[in-house]
Design a protein that fits this description.
Blueprint lengths: L17 E10 L2 E9 L3 H4 L5 E6 L6 E7 L10 E10 L2 E9 L1 H5 L5 E8 L6 E2 L12 E14 L4 E10 L8 E8 L6 E2 L13 E8 L2 E8 L5 E7 L19 E8 L4 E10 L8 E14 L5 E4 L2 H6 L9 E16 L3 E10 L5 E8 L6 E7 L4 E7 L12 E3 L8 E8 L2 E6 L3 E6 L7 E14 L3
Antiparallel strand pairs: 1-2, 2-3, 3-4, 5-6, 6-7, 7-8, 9-10, 10-11, 11-12, 13-14, 14-15, 16-17, 17-18, 18-19, 20-29, 21-26, 21-29, 22-23, 22-29, 23-24, 24-25, 26-27, 27-28
Length: 461
């Protein structure tokens, strides 16, 4: 077990490895977080990905339970035990997961299948190898049949399975669909017409479905447009599935997020990617650290995210600056507040004047301000972006790290910033999140800034 305050990272990552897709399940007063365990070291650990498990009550203290579903051999369907779901039904616990093996394609066999395992205690699982469920092949691609999400549909009085699949026809990058299969016994499955087939993305990975109030929400992750987790909303499982104005929960660095509820609150479990060679501006990797957002529902039914209360409390008191106003007509001004710790929380309220082009918080800034990370509010674009200096080439901010904000002169914006080592998670107004990495600048000052305008800064009481 480890917790905030320990030498280990606050945002969970297995020792000596990385965590990819989390499969959350709430039972017995705890969140059971199954995840894809990736050593990124084929030479020493071999090929393939197993499922491991951690459990937690507060997203701060984690109990590590080790391997749950072992990977198969290069001849087995589940060399890579990829994403799925956990469900309780018919007197037992069930995991439906993806068996992925790229070597099988070379032999003329499907490289993906839905597979099944059962348990009586959530800790010891028995695979059911005779129950592999393949793409039917009529309307669907044979090699894309993954990430099963299984739930009991009380209206239809049967189990439904949503699967990330691809149609055989249409433009290649727009064939992604969410397939639907049904079952009475969790063994025999009948493929129905696609649950959702918008003709937008290559694939809708990691489907997740839940109801909150009067709305149903379909969560998925796509990698053909922006490499983000998105959602759609509907009053009915039959649709239509509406696209909210902001259909994402976080930025480019946060992926494969799925949800679970303790019956009081619902949370979003995704991973914050690492970067190649542990350097800013390099390619994002598959897997990283767990980041949990709390979901909440606005009056119009759209979803927002905020920091879980337990995480907020675990970081303790925010770093304190001082209330001040910076005026920088036609120029740039910054005010450093002091050295940053490796792990710290910063909270600032910002109110800008009309015409201001940018303002926000600096992280790990050098004394001469030649180097810094910037969480910048841009009123003209109604957005928050993550920037750094120095930066390569002609880039106005880090690609994919922009988040929409509803901004107005004189209306305060609240920023909560959580930093632990290379991990940085920002919440704006308790509604919008932006997660990123801090690699190139390991230390420095934090402070505030304004560009071509004026803004007032204060620390909440």
């Amino acid at each position: 077990m480890h917790a905030a305050g320990s030498p280990r990272e606050f945002f969970f990552r297995p020792e000596g490895a990385f965590a990819a897709d989390f499969i959350p399940f709430f039972a017995k007063g705890r969140f059971y977080l199954y995840y894809l365990h990736d050593w990124r070291d084929t030479k020493n650990h071999g090929e393939g990905t197993p499922w491991y498990l951690v459990s937690t009550e507060d997203f701060v203290h984690f109990t590590e339970h080790g391997e749950m579903l072992a990977r198969g051999s290069t001849q087995d369907q589940d060399l890579y035990v990829f994403t799925g779901s956990a469900v309780e039904g018919l007197g037992r616990y069930h995991i439906f997961y993806t068996g992925h093996n790229p070597h099988l394609r070379k032999a003329g066999k499907p490289e993906e299948a839905v597979m099944h395992a059962v348990s009586d205690d959530l800790l010891h699982w028995t695979k059911q190898p005779g129950e592999m469920f393949f793409s039917p092949g009529n309307n669907f691609e044979p090699h894309d049949w993954r990430d099963p999400f299984v739930f009991w549909n009380p209206e239809a009085k049967e189990y439904w399975m949503l699967t990330a699949a691809r149609l055989k026809t249409g433009p290649s990058r727009r064939r992604g669909c969410t397939a639907l299969s049904t079952s009475k016994d969790l063994v025999h499955w009948t493929v129905r017409d696609p649950f959702w087939s918008p003709g937008l993305y290559f694939t809708h990975e990691c489907p997740d479905l839940f109801k909150m109030g009067d709305w149903w929400y379909l969560v998925f992750s796509e990698f053909s447009e922006r490499m983000q987790t998105r959602y759609r909303m509907s009053r009915s499982l039959k649709g239509p599935w509406l696209t909210p104005a902001n259909d994402t929960f976080d930025g480019r660095a946060y992926y494969a997020a799925k949800t679970a509820s303790d019956s009081r609150r619902r949370y979003l479990f995704g991973w914050l990617s690492t970067r190649d060679q542990n350097k800013d501006y390099r390619n994002w990797n598959w897997g990283g650290n767990l980041v949990v957002h709390e979901l909440w529902q606005a009056t119009d039914g759209t979803l927002r995210v905020r920091v879980p209360r337990t995480v907020d409390a675990a970081f303790g008191k925010s770093a304190t600056g001082r209330a001040l106003k910076l005026s920088a007509p036609g120029t740039f001004r910054a005010e450093p507040f002091g050295k940053m710790n490796s792990r710290m929380k910063i909270e600032v309220n910002i109110s800008y004047e009309a015409g201001t082009r940018g303002c926000g918080v600096m992280l790990r800034a050098s004394d001469d301000l030649e180097k810094a990370y910037y969480i910048r509010i841009e009123p003209r674009h109604n957005r928050m972006v993550f920037d750094a200096w120095p930066r390569p080439g002609d880039q106005p901010f880090m690609q994919g790290l922009e988040r929409p904000l509803r901004l107005a002169p004189g209306k305060p914006v609240n920023l909560k910033i959580f930093v632990d080592g290379t991990v940085c998670v920002v919440y704006a107004d308790g509604a919008v999140a932006m997660s990123t990495r801090l690699y190139n600048l390991p230390e420095g000052n934090w402070g505030v800034f304004v560009q071509e305008g004026a803004a007032a800064f204060s620390t909440p009481a």
